[in-house]
Design a protein that fits this description.
alpha+beta
């Protein structure tokens, strides 16, 4: 099953194998994978990643979907957003944006649309996002879109051959509805 979402400047659609080269081009950059567990060394790693995230049906507990972010005007693939269906009512999101497109509001625009889809269409109760406490750009982004810091877990994640902290941000459907921006 494919997902297609539109914003003013962006199109978000389910990842396909044809996107592998473009995804590899930004996901293989150290400045991009610095805070992420997925570090592709070759295009085949991205193809394997895509194959794991192409599903026949969405909204199934313990599965992921990956959405590519395209600029409408140019059709450039500039990033991706993952949605992990934890259970029937909760999801986790993660996002990656090519460095050359950061700081232009694209991530905020894309993530807000995904959040709207999660709460309004999929009728979920709660969204979480996990972030490295040193990744201030991502923390600032999560705060800008209205997510709140829910936990800071000390040395809870094995990352880069050492124990690292993990910060969890969250938003409830009722918080989203009360913001009045929807």
């Amino acid at each position: 099953m494919s997902v297609l979402l539109n914003t003013e400047r962006l199109i978000l659609k389910s990842v396909i194998i044809d996107n592998a080269t473009e995804i590899f081009n930004y996901r293989s950059l150290e400045e991009v994978y610095k805070y992420q567990g997925f570090r592709p060394e070759k295009k085949e790693d991205v193809i394997e990643f895509i194959n794991k995230n192409v599903v026949d049906e969405i909204n199934i507990p313990d599965t992921w979907i990956q959405l590519c972010i395209f600029i409408k005007e140019s059709n450039n693939l500039i990033g991706d957003i993952g949605v992990h269906f934890i259970d029937d009512k909760q999801v986790e999101i993660g996002y990656t944006l090519s460095p050359e497109f950061q700081g232009k509001g694209y991530a905020i625009e894309a993530i807000k649309e995904v959040i709207n889809y999660i709460f309004k269409i999929l009728k979920k109760h709660r969204i979480t996002a996990s972030v490295d406490p040193e990744n201030m750009r991502s923390i600032n982004l999560l705060e800008k879109i209205g997510m709140r810091k829910e936990a800071h877990m000390i040395k809870s994640v094995w990352f880069n051959e050492k124990w690292a902290d993990d910060v969890i941000f969250a938003m409830l459907e009722e918080e989203y509805n009360n913001k009045g921006e929807n």
